[in-house]
C-alpha cells in the first residue's frame, strides 16, 4: 500500500515555536517541520507557511524559540496549533506562561521542558514552507533533565 508522502517523517516530538513581533506582540504556533541542521555551529530549522500569523513576526524580528512539548502540555499544544492569533489572544485564552529569553527578543514558554533560543541566519523557500535556519544562542532545560555535563536526557521527557 502506498503511504501518504506528507506523513512519512512524522514520528518526531511536537513542538511550539514562540516569537515576538517588532510591535512587542507575542505569539506561538505548532510546527510540523523542525529539526537539527548543523552541530557546528549548532543550528536548527523550522518550517513556517507564509500565510501563518507568526511568519511575518519571525521574518522581521529575525529570531524564534523552539519549545519542546511534553504530554502535560498537550491541551495547550492542540489549542495553539488549531487557533490563529488573527482571531483572538490564544496565549491568554490558554493562560500560557512566558518569560523573557536570555539572548534574543522573544518569549520562551515556561511550562515546556526545553526552550531553544535561535537567531535567524538564513532561510530557504521549499515549496509550501519557508525554512528558517536559526543559530542556537541559548538552551533552557528543566534541571532534572540535565546530567553533570549539561546534556539533556531526552528519555526523561514524555513527549506528545
Question: How is this structure best summarized?
Answer:
By secondary structure, this protein is mainly beta. The chain has helices spanning 53-61, 74-82, 90-93; strands at 15-20, 26-31, 34-39, 42-48, 63-68, 98-100, 107-109, 114-125, 130-141. The protein has a single domain (12-156), classed as Electron Transport, Fmn-binding Protein, Chain A (Pnp Oxidase, Chain A).
Tag the structure with descriptive keywords.
single chain, about 160 residues, mainly beta, Pnp Oxidase, Chain A, 7-stranded antiparallel sheet, two-stranded antiparallel sheet, 9 strands, about 15% helix, about 40% strand, globular
Structure in words:
The structure is a single chain. With about 160 residues, the chain is mostly beta strands. The protein has a single domain, classed as Pnp Oxidase, Chain A (Roll), CATH 2.30.110.10. Helices cover about 15% and strands about 40% of the residues. It is built from three helices and nine strands, in the order E-E-E-E-H-E-H-H-E-E-E-E. The strands form two sheets. A seven-stranded antiparallel beta sheet has the order 2-1-5-8-9-4-3. A hairpin with a 6-residue loop joins strand 6 and strand 7 (about 105-110). The longest helix is centred in the middle third of the chain and has 9 residues, at about 55-60. The mean pLDDT is about 95.
